[in-house]
User: Which sequence fits this backbone?
């Protein structure tokens, strides 16, 4: 069997399917990433949490050990791995989406900080994609380069309070031109990353032409420097009891915020086009990180159920009830989900995100539920400790839970996939009719009648 | 997007993952197989059933249209596709397990006859593998060649009545040497294929050395010509209400059956080794055919729920309730199962069946349950017609149901996968300990204490 | 604990909930029924199947042992127990729906024949209800009395081929007056009981006024003597290969069938009203019989997994895998379903079927799926034998499967219950608003502000 | 239909089953409780949270509005409703367990504070039961009376860190006599209520005779005044980020804690007996509160999915995807769970907790999972808001999640129920054998042979 470190780490059954598709550079980068994460990042995670103060000053903190690890990652060349050169020739790294998918799983095992240290964390990743694809040279110089360098961070301001913003046409934030300036008024929430002291810009979506007959041309997107007057951060939203400081998910009021006209991205009425273009690969990243979280939970569960200190009634935990079956199911579910996402990534590599909508959509609704289930089983094996601050499982679960509605609730994706599948119906009916017709001929030819 | 006929047939998302692994010969064979099945085999299926009499003479029938299609298939070179040349250089076809897996799904759409017409149906496939791998030249000449030519058929006699034969050490059939002969006595049931008038041989497993201290050396396997005196076919077992004539699943008593010593396969005490070697690829074939059955059921469902004649309360069936969601789930489940089996096939291609036990085991317990679920949803969309003789769904479901215990019940495979996964625990614990140790160093280095 | 035989038979946890609601007569009848079923009926079931010929004459057979048991049941006073005196004062038995529900479970354990021997089998039960409630005195004398006496049997002809007849407005059968006669033309299928040689009448639903603006007044129901010229039984429909002879589920063409005007039930345009009135209690009976089937399957599973002859790898089946957990879940699911149906029966007793629509609807979609699951687990514990003719489980499963669409598919009931629950929304909103208003007052009173 | 307020509040289908079992006093108390909760308690809940400081002083706070509501509840006679007079003649209230079960559901809708204001909140309830059943007159005077009066609160200290304390024989805390004193040393965690400034006593379980051959006689239980020197509260444990102040779930070290000998409850070696006796009704209370939480979540979901402000793509949320089906399922699952717990309560009323172990065990593993599922569906309908501090759902979910291991993990209860059910096997086998024997006789009598 292959001896790549990824085998030692998780022994993924799927490796035989993708190994041949890896370039030597990707194989080497993956190995280096695994070494860096296991030896330097994962031992740093609890330290990072400890460096985050317990009081309000947490929102002003740049965590020292994270800062040090970022420098180290850059030194190692483990940086911006998400940006595929084939899609972003100028700024990208020489990795396919499939190759990065395997790496994103590794990152997902360590939680949010593990992605941040290699400059591969949301929402910066999606924002860099937007600026790299749609930004003007000036915008790229001012915002994209520092983001690519990890010098600043960013927020993506789309979701709004008081409305159902999973339907982008419901957006109420107003974006209008006044002379050489753009004026923004709106009330957003769940703006991830906006709490971070390093957050330098918000990409804000709003309506610039609310009366346009084409409802997909009503929106525009604008770069708002975070320190612009009128940008009022109201409060961090909590996810279950977690505030995810220092980044946070903020409620923000944009109160007569003024930015220069040059901060408009791509042009008036292009907002919807931009958010559509932003979605594909990011969903794959989320999915692979979720799979990493699930795999990590399964590993923790393996350790727990074989822990002699946790024996009850004279037996190891794994000797009780349905634990072995739960482990088998978890393994199978992780493996099949992994393959689904690989398949979507391979599809993107071949046909771009637009040619991979079905594959991305399936992964989007299958993976978070799967990961929640696996993490939940692991929590159960830990008993009360599993839901507490002494283990990462509960916070991981809470984060995964948001993925069942972030970027559109499960139901939306399920309906879209179902509708897309229904489009195959006419072709199927045509085939069945052709079969029926030939069948009739054969009944005649062989001179036989169907049994009732 | 690629234009291979497999895309038109099912538009499998997974194609992007495997396309590159196909040889030009395999691509062409797959296309030819699809054309043959859709244009010649599927229109013949109901005719075949009609040619099978309604009374006891059904057990003596060679169905004319099946016989004709076999000739046609051989002519087209669509023959023995299951036997991979890399494992069986002498008799095999130039296809990998992965390539054949994709083809086996196509075969599975048409039910049992669709496999038979290309000489790829169980139990003949497994029996040919046994004879090709373990048979003496003489045995191969006498039995393997006619089987490869589709001139005769065969049965595999392992399962016994009155005991739990999923544990092969429970086997009671006695196989003993008497002079130059082997004498067999035993009571088997669920012997598939034994009812067929073309069935020429049984591979019979029994105990030749029941007192051996090595319980995996107690068994031997013997070739029993079907017409040997003492071979008494008692009755066909039914699966739900189906008897699967003419092949059937028979109850058989071997009553002082005598065969020449040369009919022993591989040697005394080699029975367990032979049945182990027989299992791997066959399980993959079953799985892929099950996926084909599921995909076919989904297609039938698509046709049904868009049928204007089946509208209720003014709406198409797909506009009601959870139909669209059910279709989306079915699609996702089929896709992820397909990838699991591809992954197992790729693993076999790389590391032989022995190096793919985990992958095969996962597929074995995941796929049949998935397929049952998908077919059940399709049945529900057809209402009462779905469980009747007017549709193939109920019989398909019943056949799939047996796969949850054939070759070992789900529970056995689930336990094995779980136990196998538990073997990773020491490695995981070692890694967690290493992380903990480094973490302690980092807490010291950064002079910080964990929050409680 | 109570010592009633029902405790010994299944030890239903729910007994403590319903015991107090039983009259002394009901307690005694229940005990007598249990004794009769366990000692006389269940030992007769395989004999009855054996008395049914294997060829086409099966459709002309009155099974001797069933006939004898019917006489015996009548003698014991175990007869027509389904017909509650409170709803049918003239013909009914002094049992509430709840009391009969407990008995129907007992009947369900023995399959269809077990109900027939106490004259409590569908479709006769529903037909007797129709005639008792809506029949003219003449109709009652001619048809109801012999049915109540078990001298004849009957069929209910509603479902039609080629349309989606779960929407009764799709019905195409034509019923029109011609002089003193009614003329019926139509194509029905799945007409249970019509195959029985004792079947003397069909209650036929058709459209008498297809152009009526009130689509619930277009239908009428007519009594058609089974031997009327033009009643053509085409074939028995099969359910998973089973034909359920001698009753069968027949395809029937009514070809210019003529009956006297006096055979119209209740009046022109009353067909929909009649079928609505027929549904409530019958659904409860189906549910309770399904629960009996599930409980019986669980019992068989208990016997199987503790059978020393079925040990594998040195352990009882129950010591493997998730068997104990499966048993616990089955027990819990049976128990909660039982309570749901009891609750619906109690609701009918208090508020008639019309006041129990929600309870009946919930039971209708919950119970069959539950029972299928429990029987499926039991089948799995039996391995191949479980799906064969040697055990009752597969046929039981197949019968239960039809209940997921008989009397309306699950989806229809689920939607109705959901919609009915949504009607509570305005009341809920009103309450939440009232709470909010008071809350505002309390914030002021206590001079405190909400944390964000 | 009945017009009791409970019908207006939740229209529980199960009401028809239990109404007759309510005394006039219970009916009136239930109505009064509903009025009090809806009009006074539920509007106060967010105020109570607002009165709890955001910093460490939260652990020293007696919330004013809760204090006021407690006075009001006592005035209304809504007090100690959990303590059934039939089990506790001296201190109890004239309510059966079934009657209180219905009330506990109402309490569960408002979360923890809603139970506290009527002095029915854990762990005080279980502790009062212990003192009422096992306490000496002196202990009752000193601790039980103030608890019954709601003047003090209490903690139950059983669970230990570093071991698997779901197996009570693993307990390590040492309790030994030294002269007239008892000395306690141990390390506990998850001690609910210990953080509260009003907490006056801990009931501490430890080992007094660790070498006893009877492992159920090794434990003793001691009353420890909360302010005893050596009682060191280390930290509050968090549940999904929530600390549940002011009560909290504390980690506590008992470091050479000394109490008088008279603080021993019931006698040396009686600890296990006491904790066993404490469990039954408390589990029912938890279950009913969970059902209340689920019902409340369903109500919130009904309001959300019909909210015109949350329309997407021109349709109400309930018009999308599977929302209606989800609501129907939630309703059905709540209803069947409710009935399961009622059934357990009725069983306790008839046969005490010891005679209701199966019913309690089933409820214990069925209800929390059900409630989690229902609350999760409601969260999903709220999108991100559902997991945030603006709705109660996430905190409710987190609390419910702990019930899958509190008082023993699901797996333990599932195994116990399964094993208990297996005890029916010999009886079943005996019955099946008797049937078989009679069957053989009938085959002879009727001179018929079974079909194969």
Assistant:
């Amino acid at each position: 069997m292959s001896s790549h470190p990824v085998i030692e780490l998780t022994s993924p059954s799927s490796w035989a399917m993708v190994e041949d598709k890896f370039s030597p550079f990707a194989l080497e980068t993956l190995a280096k990433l695994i070494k860096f994460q296991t030896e330097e990042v994962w031992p740093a995670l609890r330290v990072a949490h400890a460096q985050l103060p317990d009081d309000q000053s947490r929102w002003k903190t740049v965590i020292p050990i994270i800062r040090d690890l970022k420098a180290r990652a850059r030194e190692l060349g483990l940086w911006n791995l998400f940006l595929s050169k084939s899609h972003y020739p100028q700024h990208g790294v020489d990795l396919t989406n499939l190759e990065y998918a395997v790496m994103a799983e590794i990152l997902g095992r360590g939680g949010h900080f593990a992605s941040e240290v290699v400059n591969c964390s949301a929402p910066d990743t999606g924002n860099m994609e937007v600026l790299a694809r749609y930004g003007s040279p000036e915008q790229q110089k001012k915002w994209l380069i520092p983001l690519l360098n990890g010098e600043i961070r960013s927020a993506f301001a789309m979701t709004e309070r008081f409305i159902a913003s999973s339907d982008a046409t419901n957006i109420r934030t107003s974006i209008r031109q006044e002379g050489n300036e753009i004026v923004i008024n709106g009330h957003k929430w769940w703006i991830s990353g906006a709490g971070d002291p390093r957050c330098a810009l918000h990409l804000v979506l709003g309506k610039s032409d609310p009366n346009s007959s084409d409802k997909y041309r009503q929106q525009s997107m604008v770069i708002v420097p975070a320190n612009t007057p009128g940008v009022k951060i109201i409060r961090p939203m909590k996810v279950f009891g977690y505030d995810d400081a220092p980044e946070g998910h903020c409620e923000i009021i944009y109160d007569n915020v003024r930015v220069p006209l040059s901060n408009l991205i791509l042009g008036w009425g292009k907002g919807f086009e931009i958010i559509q273009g932003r979605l594909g690969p990011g969903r794959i990243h989320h999915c692979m990180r979720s799979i990493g979280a699930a795999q990590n939970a399964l590993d923790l569960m393996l350790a727990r159920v074989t822990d002699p200190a946790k024996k009850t009634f004279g037996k190891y935990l794994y000797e009780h009830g349905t634990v072995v079956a739960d482990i088998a199911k978890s393994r199978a579910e992780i493996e099949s989900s992994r393959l689904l996402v690989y398949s979507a990534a391979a599809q993107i590599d071949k046909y771009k995100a637009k040619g991979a909508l079905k594959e991305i959509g399936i992964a989007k609704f299958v993976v978070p539920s799967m990961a929640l289930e696996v993490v939940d089983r692991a929590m159960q094996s830990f008993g009360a400790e599993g839901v507490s601050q002494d283990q990462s499982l509960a916070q991981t679960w809470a984060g995964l839970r948001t993925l069942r509605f972030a970027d559109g609730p499960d139901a939306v994706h399920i309906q879209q996939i179902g509708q897309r599948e229904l489009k195959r119906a006419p072709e199927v009916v045509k085939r069945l009719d052709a079969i029926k017709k030939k069948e009739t001929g054969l009944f005649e030819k062989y001179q036989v009648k169907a049994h009732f």
Q: What stands out?
A: The two ends of chain D are 55 Å apart (CA to CA).
